[in-house]
Amino acid sequence: MMKQWFKSGNPWIWLTAGAVSVSLILVFGLLLLIAARGLGHFWPATVWEYDYVDRDSSVIRLIGEIHDEEAVKSQRLRDAGFAIEGDKLVTRYLLKTGNRDVNGQDFRWILEPSIQQRGTPQTLMAVERREWGNLYGYLSAVQENQQTVATGSDAWASLQQRLLRTDALFAEIRQLEKGEIGSINYALERLRLRERKLELDGVVKGENDSGQYQTIQQERDALNADYAGLQKRLTDLYTAINRDQMVVTVSGGQTLTVPLAKVVRAYQPNAMSLFDKLKFYMAKLWEFVSDEPREANTEGGIFPAIFGTVMMVIIMSIMVVPFGVVAAVYLREYARQGPLTQLIRIAVNNLAGVPSIVYGVFGLGFFVYFLGGNLDQLFFPEALPAPTFGTPGLMWASLTLALLTVPVVIVATEEGLSRIPKSVREGSLALGATKAETLWRTVLPMASPAIMTGLILAIARAAGEVAPLMLVGVVKLAPSLPLDGNLPFLHLDRKFMHLGFHIYDVGFQSPNVEAARPLVYATALLLVLVIVALNLAAIAIRNRLREKYRALEN
Questions:
Q1: What is the DSSP-derived secondary structure letter of residue 275?
Q2: What region, left, alpha or beta, does residue 87 occupy, with left being phi > 0 and alpha being psi -120 to 50 degrees?
Q3: Are strands 244-249 and 59-73 parallel, antiparallel or unpaired?
Q4: In this predicted structure, what is the pLDDT of residue 83?
Q5: Residue 233: is it exposed, middle or buried by C-beta count within 10 angstroms (0-12/13-18/19+)?
Q6: Are residues 177 and 86 in the same domain?
Q7: Separation of alpha carbons 492 and 206, rounded Å
Q8: How confident is the model at residue 298 (pLDDT cuts 50, 70, 90)?
Q9: Are residues 337 and 453 in the same domain?
Q10: How far is CA 325 from CA 203, 225, 407, 445, in A?
Q11: How far apart are CA 305 and CA 293, in angstroms?
């Protein structure tokens, strides 16, 4: 019976099903772990106040959030200098104390036996700042131009009202600096390049310039006049935003005066209801996906990284599909099948296994230095010695990843072409169509689901690549997006941010690893979601094409 059961093949079917099930459980378990560690970061944590006995037996007051906890053997603590008796497990907490500008550190470990008293006063406040991380303490007063305007129970309402005003002013300043003033600076730089091009072409001012220099100067004067007006408006906004301050009493009784211009939000988590916490949580999630990063990428949002990742994948897809399809069509439909064609197929398959960093080095050497440098010499001499395309950027990153993923598209397209019955080609030719018409109107449409399969695999690999991008275009912080309102709108020469590199940078290059760790999980989850969304869009298109041409295949 057992022999017959093994010969029937059922054990191997069950083994395969079990392996697939275990793999799915591991994948979903990993995603759940990432989601729990990442998404939990945005929930408003309870702020604790401790009376703590330090190593020198002095009692200090600590304020902060419990970031982590673990059980440690008492012997290990005694070796570190703590007066812990007995042989037992001692719980210790990683307390996020914040106030880095005061204490010099964001975190410290505290031991459970050394805690004399603890509490969660509702008036304890957490302040998110644009610099120096979180601040924890009690709100003492609200000031306007260094004059106290609210204290006691009125201070909190006054603070929230003034923070709304400050946020509106900050958004206006950002729009002015990055929008209108940024556009003027971009236009002034274009005028400088136009003038430099006239000089290189031998056009002499006042002799054979046909009024071109005068036109440039008139445009420059108009832009400078607009810039002066905007600069005055910007100065007024900075004066207005620096009007308000708040006085905070932190742990140890020290009093700090914090300008509201440096505050993102202030909240009292211990006094928040469940609805208030949910509202806060959704606001933080929206900030994470829509705002720009701050504090060396450890705070704020990651919208530029999301935008850069999606933009790079789209441009890569536009580049990789034509090259991959043309190569596959030639190999399957036109090339004589023989040893040379087989050798080419082996080479294509081997290219898929080349380490991605090798493609990055090739992209840096060929695309950036050779091709980009020559493009600068031919078309952008006025900008030299500052490179335009002779430096890493979005286009070279997309081309490098297109080169990396083109073997996948070639193999998938060839498989799709090989599944199309020969009778379909012969029927088209018998009706008078040429080979090219047969290919364009019959064969390629029927192979389009396979082409989309290759594109899906290419997107899945390219979106998560980091190593080659570090050489050909990705940066820690990009000053502007590759797409904006300035001609030519899509700037393929600009550097960009990427979710994969953002994970590497925050997780391994951050000056404050403990504070950045939750953002690593959150960004990793978001990268998975972006890849899934891109793949689902491609799968939906593939399924529609498959249904459309199913009748022809039958």
A1: H
A2: beta
A3: unpaired
A4: 66
A5: middle
A6: no
A7: 36
A8: confident
A9: yes
A10: 47, 53, 10, 12
A11: 9
160 and 118 inside one domain: no
- Side chain identity, residue 415: E
**Placement of tokens 């004066």 in the chain:** 239
Assigned token pair, 368: 């950036």
At 410, the pLDDT band (50, 70, 90 cuts) reads very high
How high is the pLDDT of residue 553? 52
Pair 202, 317 in one domain: no
Closest-CA residue to 501 (of 356, 321, 286, 291): 356
Residue 27 lies in a domain: no
For residue 179, what are the CA distances in angstroms to 171, 174, 286? 11, 8, 22
Domain boundary among 227, 259, 276: 276
Total domain count for the chain? 3
Residue 376, pLDDT above cutoff 70: yes
Asked if residue 437 and residue 347 are part of one domain, the reply reads yes
Domain holding 52, by residue range, is 47-122
DSSP 23-55: HHHHHHHHHHHHHHHHHGGGS-PPEEEEEEE-T
Helix locations, 84-123, DSSP H = 100-103
Q: What is the DSSP letter of 494?
A: S
Q: How far is Cα 339 from Cα 334, in angstroms, rounded to an integer?
A: 15
- Lowest mean pLDDT of 153-157, 192-196, 204-208, 232-236, name the range: 204-208
Q: How confident is the model at residue 549 (pLDDT cuts 50, 70, 90)?
A: low
Q: Is the predicted pLDDT of residue 552 greater than 60, yes or no?
A: no
How large is the angle between the packed helices 394-418 and 303-329, nearest 10 degrees? 40
Q: Is residue 10 part of a domain?
A: no
pLDDT in the model for residue 102: 83
- 530 Cβ neighbours under 8 A, 6+ residues apart: 306, 309, 310, 463, 499
DSSP state of 151: E
DSSP 42-90: GS-PPEEEEEEE-TTS-EEEEEEEEEEEEEEEHHHHHHTT----SS-EE
What is the number of other CB atoms lying within 10 angstroms of the CB of residue 470? 20
Token pair 């949580």: residue: 281
Its sign, for the CA torsion 522, 525, 531, 533, is negative
Token digits for 264? 């993102």
Q: Indicate the helix (H) or strand (E) that contains 1.
A: none
